Amino acid sequence: MPAANWIRPEAHGIYIPPADCWIDPARPVDLALVTHGHADHARGGHGRTVATPATLDIMSLRYGVEAENIGRATPAPYGETIELKGGVAATWLPAGHVLGSAQILLEHAGERVIVTGDFKRRPDPTCPPFAPTACDVLITEATFGLPVFRHPPIAEEIAKLLAARQANADRCVLIGAYALGKAQRLIAELRIAGYREPIYLHGAMERMCQLYQDHGIDLGDLQPVAGLPKAALMGQIVVCPPSALNDRWSRRLPDPITAMASGWMRVRQRARQRNVELPLVISDHADWDELTRTIEEVNPAETWITHGREEALLRWCELHQRKARALAMVGYEDEDD
């Protein structure tokens, strides 16, 4: 009998028939179990949403509970088990991806299945670390599932950023970073590196940074760019959404050094396409070595692969005599990682 035949990968999400629920569904359902707050995993319109308290706060900020876009919300703190119908138990465990991100451990009929959602293994001052957990089936992402993707230490990338700022006192450094997770991690790592000056924010970043601070993540002195003259931003660090790097908004800044914080900056063509002067290889996803190490550490009977470069990781599993399958799922986008 196939492992975990009570879980059914569908094009628009992972369906759990005994509990009649979905994990990270791409369309509205009656009951959604959500791994984290990025828009390709957390969507509005569900009848009931179960997620960590921080993820529910993120969804509320983005969609608005009052507008009934989330539906009835059930908080699932890390480590607490929720009993679903059909004899299915679900436990949310840290994934190390962004604030509130979780793996979901499903237990039914004597089997254990881990759905990782998105995850990383590197230390991150803005969220709890990934918790390796034994299971029969591991459903893993493969966003950076190619051997070319081996992320450098983040301290090296932060040092490059600070050196560029130091060498260009008459310019600012404008960093494109995803509004949830990447921006806050970047700011926190700058603080760890000793940068104590104000960091300036595009208006689209302010509310999410405030939410992180409300959850006890110290990001230091953050200031809005709005209303400041160019001269006030000379020699400063400014954080904006990737979409704002080269649009009209950026023209108000003093000759910005355009930077981008993303695992995709390992690919030079992507940096050139975005006109990025200072590529920063900073990722909130596991790289190739972390993906393969996680499979070895968890040691599942089967590995199911989704979200990205499935073929290479599938081949690695085959070469290491590990049973695996690729899940052809839609609706998951490349984040501006």
UniProtKB/TrEMBL annotation:
Metallo-beta-lactamase domain boundaries: 26-174
Domain of life of the source: Bacteria
Alphabetical UniProt keywords: Exonuclease, Hydrolase, Ligase, Nuclease
EC number assigned by the record: 3.1.-.-
GO molecular function: exonuclease activity; ligase activity
InterPro entries: MBL, Metallo-B-lactamas, RibonucZ/Hydroxyglut_hydro, Xnuc_lig_assoc
PANTHER family per record: BLL1145 PROTEIN (PTHR11203:SF49), CLEAVAGE AND POLYADENYLATION SPECIFICITY FACTOR FAMILY MEMBER (PTHR11203)
Protein name per the record: Ligase-associated DNA damage response exonuclease
Species of origin: Novosphingobium anseongense
